[in-house]
Design a protein that fits this description.
Distance between the termini: 104 Å
Largest sheet: none
Order of helices and strands: HHHHHHHHHH
Radius of gyration: 25 Å
Number of helices: 10
Helix content: over 70%
């Protein structure tokens, strides 16, 4: 009995070293799990966003989105309606498959920023009250993909575009926000509303 105990390493030291080694192995093997989780999240967000403008894209003209962008003081409303509808559709699909991820993430992030700014901000934070909670979550997700890249399983990787993700994301974000600033014309919207009421 004593011989058996002497042949074993001290329990405390053995357990600590063995547990540490096992945890390290688990952390290394979790990489595949994280990639799977990332692909699932990107697919869910990427395929969910394009469904928003589909009803309007099936019409002869994007009347629904044009009416919405007009109400948000963007001019010309019809052009911004087209940009909104196709931006959500193509941006979501590209993000889902990991193609031109930086551009897709930038477009979708701008979409969420405008939605929070013009629609949800006055309603507070919680999504149950129409606040920014949900849009902020999506915006954070798109920012992460734009800054961290799409991962090894994205189409960008074999095409050699993955290393350009952050640059494309930054350029898209800056140009897009400048376009939003130029297209937001509340004074023109107020004048149109006054003319419509006068008529």
């Amino acid at each position: 009995m004593n011989t058996g105990r002497a042949g074993r390493a001290p329990a405390g030291r053995y357990r600590f070293r063995n547990a540490a080694r096992m945890e390290w192995v688990k952390l290394r093997t979790l990489r595949s799990t994280w990639w799977t989780l990332g692909i699932t999240v990107a697919g869910a967000a990427g395929l969910g966003v394009p469904t928003l403008p589909l009803p309007h894209l099936l019409e002869p003209a994007p009347a629904g989105t044009a009416k919405m962008t007009g109400a948000l003081s963007f001019r010309p409303a019809r052009a911004w309606g087209v940009v909104l509808a196709w931006g959500e559709l193509l941006g979501g699909l590209l993000l889902a498959v990991g193609l031109l991820t930086g551009i897709a993430a930038g477009v979708l992030l701008i979409d969420m920023i405008v939605a929070m700014w013009k629609v949800h901000w006055p309603k507070g934070f919680w999504v149950s009250k129409g606040g920014i909670e949900y849009n902020l979550t999506l915006a954070t997700l798109f920012a992460v993909f734009g800054l961290a890249g799409p991962g090894a399983y994205a189409i960008d990787a074999p095409l050699g575009l993955a290393s350009w993700t952050t640059t494309l994301f930054a350029v898209t974000l800056v140009l897009g926000l400048l376009g939003v600033w130029a297209g937001h014309r509340p004074e023109a919207a107020r004048m149109e509303e006054r003319r419509r009421r006068a008529a």
